Amino acid sequence: MSSWDPKRQPTPRRKESHVHIGLIGLGKMGFNMRERLRNGGVEVTGYDRNPDVTDAASIDELLAAVPTPRLIWVMVPAGDITDAVIKELGEKLDEGDLVIDGGNSRFTEDQKHGELLAAKGIHFADCGVSGGVWGLQNGYGLMAGGDAADIERALPVFDALRPEGDRADSFVHVGGIGAGHYAKMVHNGIEYGLMQAYAEGYQLLASKDIISDLPGTFRAWQKGTVVRSWLLDLLVKALDEDPGLQNIDDYVEDSGEGRWTVEEAIANAIPAPAITAALFARFESREDSSPAMKMVSALRHQFGGHATRPAK
User: Fold this and answer.
1) Would residue 223 show up in a list of annotated catalytic residues for this protein?
2) pLDDT score for 282
3) Which of 162, 309, 302 is nearest to 235 (CA)?
4) Claim: this prediction has a pTM higher than 0.90
C-alpha cells in the first residue's frame, strides 16, 4: 500500500510568478518579508510611512500599482493602527479584492474586520507569522485563518514566505477567520513558558559557585539532549555576545499575546499554570532585579529584534 501523501510533498518555489501583491508595513518584519517574497518570485509593491523603505508614496499609489483582483497584506502593529488601515482599505478596495492581516491582531478583531470588509464584497483572511528577524534567512512559520478559496488563492505568497520543504511542516490553514491569529496567540503563550524555563535554569546555574563554565553548559545541551531547540541556540548566542548579560536590563515587555492566552485559558477553564506564571514573571521583572529576566529580555532580542533596556 502506497504511503504517498500529497500534503507532505515538497512544494517548489515559484521562480517566475504572475503574483503581484501590495504589502503595507515595512518595519522589522515587513521589510524582510518583502525581500523574501521577491526572492520567491512574488512581485511586491510596499508602502510604509518611512520614505527610506517605501515603494509607493501612499496607500492610494500602492493600490493603483497592484493588479485587480488585488491581494493586500497588512503588516502593521496590532490595535488602533491595524484597525485604521483595514478601515481605509475598506473604503478604497474593490469587490473581490483580498486583505490578509499578518500582524499580531487579537482574533476577535479579525472577526470584526472580516465582517466590515465582507459588507463591501472584499475578502479577508488572517495569518499568524512566526520567525522574527530570522525569517528572511530561514523562512516563516505561518498559521492562516479564512475561507478555503481565499487561502488557496494566497498559496503562492505563503509558499514564498515559508521555509523550503514540505508545506505541512511550516504552514497550516487552521480554520475560519480568526483561527490563524488564535493559533499564533497560543504559540506565543507557549513561547513565554519556554523562555521562562530556560531563563530560570540560567539563573540557577549562574548562582552556583561550583559552575565554572556557564556558557559551555548551555552549549553542551545543543545536540543530543531533550531540551535542545532554536531558543537554546539563541540563548548560547546571547551569552557569546554578552557573557554576563551585563549590558541588558531585566525589564521585559509583554506584547499582548501572553495576556490574551491567559485570558482565553480562564474563559475556557483550561489550566495553564506555566504560561500564566511566565506572564506574571514579566510583570515582576518591572519591580526587581533578576538574572532570569535579563535572559528573557536577551532571548526576545535574539529572535524578534525586540528592544532591550540598557543595564542601570
Assistant:
1) no
2) 79
3) 302
4) no
